[in-house]
User: Fold this.
Amino acid sequence: MPPRRRTDPVVGEAALAAWRADPDGVDRATRAAAVRFTLEELGAVAPGRSVEVRVPPFGAVQCVEGPTHTRGTPPNVVETDAETWLSLATGVLRWAEALADGRLRVSGTRADLGSLLPLVGRDPAGVAR
Assistant:
């Protein structure tokens, strides 16, 4: 069963479209909705609890099948800022480039999400188009 969505997909898609149209001009609430929506999309594309993706202060999601943790900091963590995350989610920025530039803080052997991104342009089965 996919995780329950907290962001209405219509609201999330509108926020993401607004961010794509003017990344520097969107307000904090719109940016937050876009981040939360794309994190939920990642959770739907790669359900599981072996990797935690954090985009402070807006949200976090656990994703990717595999060994799970029950307490404390998970062994596989990805953390970044909102602009980097949205750029990755929309394909403006590639995983390897963000990693090389130091825009991602990554730990753990399962934390490479490059094959799951971008999230925009995927069909309902999660396959990149």
